[in-house]
Amino acid sequence: MDFEQIRTPAYVVDEKKLENNLLILKNVSDRSQAKILLAQKAFSMYRVYPLIKKYLCGATASGIFEARLAAEELGGENHIFCPAFTEEEMKEAVNICDHIVFNSLTQLELHRKIWENAGVSVGIRINPEFSTQEGHEIYDPCARGSRLGVTRENLPSVLPKGVTGLHFHTLCEQNVQPLIDTFRAVEEKFGDALSQISWINLGGGHHITREDYDIDALCELVMYIRKKYGIEVYLEPGEAVALNAGYLVTTVMDIVTNDMPILILDTSAACHMPDVLEMPYRPPLKNAGLPSEKAFTCRLSSCTCLAGDVIGDYSFDDMPKVGDRLVFEDMAIYSMVKNNTFNGMPLPDIVLMHGNGDCELVKRFGYADFKERLS
Ligand SMILES: Cc1ncc(COP(=O)(O)O)c(C=O)c1O
User: Fold this and answer.
1) Tell me: the pLDDT tens digits for 286-344?
2) 80 lines ligand 1 (CB under 6 A)
């Protein structure tokens, strides 16, 4: 089918744009020897894992289900980090993962017997206590009181037996300078540990596939770390893998008026793009402008009961009509992985747009998907 025939609401992933991002990431790993993993928390559309596999060396998981998905659908290196694991999860993790990252020394010791016997590579997540972002405390693992990562004060100068790696994740949608600054802080605080490991994982939050990202500086940093410490360097971007590589296509179902025209769409911020409310942010909308920039300003909202289920105010050259289709951009990441059926809202279709423009329906959800999560 072509784009116009897609039933809405639908997430449409643009294969060509995804592959362009993957080429950029592959170029980084070829130039710097960095090992790049897909952070599945951002994007787990496993229909395209065969494509991703051609360019990345594996995946990282935030829990056992993501790890299982990577083992079944992607292959390659399989890493996992979770603040805490149950014994059952750990027994499964050591079978399907080659790298396990613990968030505390107590978790490391609690599961020691299981991971030691399995012979997997084990790391500790550290907290450099070095914030490089303002305004989004919810996305700052270095914020005061953070549970994420062992602080210097709590890490012994000789790493526990069997620990071969360190991991930190502190960035969110950032260019390379905050990473360089963070690594300098890691060297200052954890320099003694860097000489005791064989790999370091610099986490995610690197907006590598954004146009203005300084790829040369990233490669330089990775090569510096590899050379100076003689260790492997991992990056685990989520966003950068599918940045700007997807759309959420929606239809205007009604237009009501209260101070301004309010479009009621067949999608929902709360259900289909929760980051719009959580972060919060304003998703780009094709052919639309900021409020008052174009002739007609409208509020875009949804079919749910939540008064605040508003995507934002946008302006248009022509007044939208019932039945019009609108296209939100940059909707591949943190969308499908976070959606929900609050209010019994149907889940959007998942569509893959191939390089020639052909759109393949990958998955359609229905009432059963709503009911099966309830009892
Ligand atoms: C431990 C870890 N690694 C990687 C990522 C991926 O980050 P991003 O999608 O911003 O690149 C996250 C995001 O929360 C994370 O918590």
Assistant:
1) 999 999 999 999 999 999 999 999 999 999 999 999 999 999 999 999 999 999 999 99
2) no
Which residues are CB-neighbours of 86 under 8 A, at least 6 positions away? none
Q: Can you give the residue range of the structural domain that contains 303?
A: 3-11+246-331+339-371
Note the pLDDT of residue 136.
Answer: 77
Q: Please give the angle made by the CA atoms of 210, 213 and 217, to the nearest 5 degrees.
A: 155
- 122 shares a domain with 76: yes
Backbone phi, then psi, for 329, in 5-degree steps? -105, 170
| Ligand 1 neighbour 349 (Cβ under 6 A) | no
Report yes or no: 121 and 165 within 8 Å, Cβ to Cβ: yes
Q: Are residues 257 and 233 part of one domain? A: no
Which residue is closest in CA terms to ligand 1's atom 5? 204
pLDDT tens string 156-198: 999 999 999 999 999 999 999 999 999 999 999 999 999 999 9
Within the chain, what is the greatest distance between any pair of CA atoms? 67
Residue 205 Cβ inside 6 Å of ligand 1? The answer reads: yes
